[in-house]
Design the sequence.
């Protein structure tokens, strides 16, 4: 996590990675934490997370889920109970060995994810089929000790929600797994304006302990993929490991079928890299900390002009807030309007409303659009009505732009040579044999990975593997891309 | 944390402590975590916390505060920088020594509170008086390795909010400290129906590193006090320890003045013990997970009656939800109405609405009040209007009841013998010399502590210390009580 501030923002074309590492600090989303790989999420970034939480949480509750809270410290022995799970997570654990001035009898891990501690509780909470389903979620911090970290994309500590459900049948659990993927996809597109491909992970990319991992994959503006949310079907794996059994309708003992699903502060990275441009961030209106910034414009020391402008600015802000619009009035003294323009442009506030003495003479305010740069004069009395419509249109335009970008950078490949070339520039749909060794070979040769077997997409019937020529192992072509 | 379920709920009079330890599990607020001293906050308890968060957060934002997030792991060396702070917290730290499979170069503490890591960041964020004030808050988990733990009251891990502000002057910081105490007091009374005494802690009871600690103290139904929220003025202590300096208006370097203030899941304990009775919990309506439980009543197998009742129940629930009322429809099959009554009574839902065939014939529903046990027939068309009014009245009655209980158990003492007797039964206002040794002697002899020097209350002018006879050290009589 390098911090740069003195120079100009790098362009996306010259160095996308440098652009990202610069804009997250410039736009005041984060600061570095004192411990390697940690970040301070600053108010402008945290507000984005609060809006993500609020809207996603409402979708969870509307589908019958409740929130609860499990302890953060998990006995190390819990991880041993599910063989694949421990293999996946043990290397990344942060471990508490001392507390209250003494060495602990058993070391405790800070949760990297909570299947184990929740599985132990579910085994006590579930006795009969009448106790099922359990539909719970928690909003918490988790810790995975990663070597290479970048703000939002990969940090040792991050914030997320993790849903954990238990069901009487495989069918119900699978339906839940799919439902939560649909919720993530709907949320990403309808709130984040981030178009996503829904699909299933190949065996090698599955969550440690899952029978099936569903994912939403988004394309960043450098053509790379970002996994933005996942939903896992565990089958009976965790139920067997933690003894989550129940008496079914026939009074026979059965194992529960469990799922888990999560979306994290990584989604902020998706927003930044799906929408941002060379001027900085572009915030999707429904999640934007501020949807409109209002700039009062008057000459320094012209107190009469200032009074008139500020009175109108306050009235407009109040009228907008009454419409439910999130408004920031930038009335800081001693900063030029130009400097304020640049700052809010960089921070990606969707709309800018300028009010100066000349505007007031004409009874208008100037409404500027961060995406197109277009500016329109809006009658003062019409602002409160115009802004919500402009925000709705902004959302649609942003989503359309992202879809168009993705479509322009999505390819078929007739040969592995073409695959190799195309995958440098975006997503490639290609048939694959399904062999883990062949998938690994592709990764070694191209740095691209199988992002998912898409739920919808071109058929691979009768096709042969893009690399090895064996018959396709899946019904559909696999989406390959370089990924974060 | 002992768990009991088989027997009847102990009465408060026979064993208040056993009543508490039993009701938190019976009402399904918590479960035990696998690690000593930790708790799982179950959905019914967590929903209470969500309502606390939502309402308190709105009060913070209305007074100009923003949320952010600081990393949970703090380098051990940070604690050394403020001498009193390290003395207060070092014995309770949980320490991460290994991560990613390796021993760390420097051990990391899980935050017990975040003054140190925030102080380090503020030193970088503040350069000029123009950068001040910083008005930030975070909602997080913290860890203090306590030996004796009880759900909500004292757990090794708990949830809270911690506000941290920095100001240019002592006056501003003191005003902030007082403002946040007022917000806690207003919140406790207007949302929790928990009456509180606002006061200042004596020197011995101050937060480690603070120059002044303000507190709200509530009386539980066993006469003991529960500290329910605190607001600290740090002076320049943390600014000097972490070098939070700025150029003031005269371009001279000065230290910032900082504050911090917190309210935790402990407040759930205050709600339980301020309002609960021998039947179980009584939830304050504004924070209650469910404000009304609707019970459809019909004979098993009477499908016609069931259909009619359920249609009306659904219509009533929809009408109530439209009024913003939090409604639970208990339509579980195979459970008698009596069993459902008892369960919701124990869980303390303020109002119960019963709808049966006889009620429908008369065009009414029966509305029962958890506090008084009173039942009234309400015309079906009037329910949506009646319930919000009944909830408002319930809140007032609950607050009044708690105030009356506190006033009945609040005493003056003319002698130390009387003090000793009275403090077994509630709060005692008594003059005190202000000497820490004398305060400790009182604690040793009576187990009571100085809860606070109240901001309002009887004068101690010319009075002498209740124990040692030296002149009063404070303007007012001190509030003494046994405490959680």
Sequence:
């Amino acid at each position: 996590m390098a911090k740069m501030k003195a120079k100009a923002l790098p362009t996306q074309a010259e160095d996308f990675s440098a652009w990202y590492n610069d804009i997250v600090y410039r736009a005041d989303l984060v600061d570095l934490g004192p411990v390697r790989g940690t970040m301070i999420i600053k108010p402008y970034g945290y507000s984005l997370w609060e809006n993500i939480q609020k809207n996603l949480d409402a979708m969870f509750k509307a589908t019958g889920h409740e929130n609860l809270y499990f302890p953060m410290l998990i006995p190390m022995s819990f991880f041993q109970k599910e063989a694949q799970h421990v293999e996946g997570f043990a290397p990344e654990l942060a471990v508490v060995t001392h507390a209250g001035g003494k060495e602990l009898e058993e070391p405790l891990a800070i949760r990297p994810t909570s299947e184990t501690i929740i599985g132990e509780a579910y085994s006590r909470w579930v006795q009969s089929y009448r106790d099922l389903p359990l539909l719970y979620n928690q909003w918490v911090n988790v810790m995975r000790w990663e070597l290479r970290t970048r703000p939002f994309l990969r940090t040792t500590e991050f914030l997320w929600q993790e849903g954990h459900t238990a069901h009487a049948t495989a069918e119900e659990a699978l339906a839940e797994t799919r439902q939560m993927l649909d919720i993530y996809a709907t949320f990403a597109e309808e709130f984040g304006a981030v178009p996503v491909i829904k699909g299933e992970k190949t065996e090698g990319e599955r969550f440690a302990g899952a029978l099936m991992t569903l994912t939403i994959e988004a394309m960043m503006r450098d053509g790379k993929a970002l996994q933005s949310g996942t939903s896992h079907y565990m089958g009976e794996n965790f139920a067997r490991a933690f003894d989550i059994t129940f008496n079914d309708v026939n009074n026979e003992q059965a194992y529960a079928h469990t799922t888990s699903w999560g979306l994290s502060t990584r989604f902020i990275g998706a927003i930044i890299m799906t929408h941002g441009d060379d001027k900085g961030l572009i915030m999707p209106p429904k999640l934007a900390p501020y949807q409109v910034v209002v700039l009062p414009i008057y000459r320094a020391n012209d107190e009469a002009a200032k009074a008139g402008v500020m009175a109108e600015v306050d009235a407009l802000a109040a009228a907008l807030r009454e419409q439910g619009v999130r408004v920031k009035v930038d009335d800081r003294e001693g900063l030029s309007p130009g400097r304020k323009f640049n700052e809010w442009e960089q921070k990606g506030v969707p709309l800018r409303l300028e009010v100066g003495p000349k505007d007031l003479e004409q009874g208008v305010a100037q409404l500027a659009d961060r995406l197109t740069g277009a500016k329109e004069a809006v009658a003062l009395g019409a602002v409160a009505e115009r802004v919500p419509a402009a925000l709705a249109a902004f959302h649609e335009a942003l989503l359309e732009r992202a879809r168009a970008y993705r479509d322009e950078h999505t390819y078929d490949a007739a040969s592995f040579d073409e695959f190799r070339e195309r995958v440098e520039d975006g997503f490639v749909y290609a048939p694959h044999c399904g062999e883990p060794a062949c998938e690994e070979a592709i990764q070694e040769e191209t740095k691209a990975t199988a992002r998912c077997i898409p739920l919808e997409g071109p058929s691979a019937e009768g096709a042969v593997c893009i690399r090895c020529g064996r018959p396709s192992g899946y019904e559909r072509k696999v989406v390959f891309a370089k990924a974060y």
